[in-house]
Amino acid sequence: MTLYIKNMVCRRCILSVAQILEKNGIAATAIALGEVKLALDITPTQEKSLRKDLEDYGFELLDDQRSMLIEKVKTLLIEEVQSGELPDDFSLVKFIGHAIHRDYSAVSKLFSEVEGISLEKYFILQKIEKVKELLAYNEYSLSEIAFRLGYSSVAYLSSQFKKVTGLTPSAFKANHAGKRRPLDEVHRR
């Protein structure tokens, strides 16, 4: 049995979900972002308790196929961006098609309907959050960050960064380093 859980965006989320499962006496064979594979089916009582405990931590157990697909897409994009190794020829269309074996336009349309934001915009927002993180760590130059996140140039990264944040990367670094939104709230304003 596989459970799909909304708002799992980092390694700490995986640890939190593992603790919640253990608390509820539920054995998992694998836990990944947004997905838990169980050794056995769970009882209705366990599901009710699990659902409540997950919600207490800001997670949500997903039931419908549309939500599960969207959460899977979000998880894949977050993982890809967080890897910090996007090629400059990265194609969202090819990536989604290859990763979930579905028509990109149908997934993109569904994503927009469910999330209220386009898939492309969501991807850009994830990349900008990663840029903020890398700027805050001060380990890479802007040129290196642009290369790592698949931007064709520093100018393009700077332009997109300013369009999303209202600041240049250097102004952000000087005034706002450390003031980032949690990844599960990136699409909200």
Explain what the structure shows.
This protein is an alpha+beta fold. It folds into two domains: 2-63, Alpha-Beta Plaits, CATH 3.30.70.100; 67-185, Orthogonal Bundle (Arc Repressor Mutant, subunit A). The protein is built from nine helices and four strands; from the N terminus they run E-H-E-E-H-E-H-H-H-H-H-H-H. The longest helix is centred in the last third of the chain and has 19 residues, at 119-137.
Give a quick rundown of the structure:
The protein has 9 helices and 4 strands. The chain folds into 2 domains: 2-63, Alpha-Beta Plaits, CATH 3.30.70.100; 67-185, Arc Repressor Mutant, subunit A. The longest helix has 19 residues, at 119-137.
Number of helices: 9
Under CATH, the topology of the largest domain can be stated as Arc Repressor Mutant, subunit A
Q: Which structural class best describes the helix and strand composition? A: alpha+beta
**Overall CATH class of the largest domain:** Mainly Alpha
Using only CA atoms, what is the Rg?
18 Å
Helix content: 55-70%
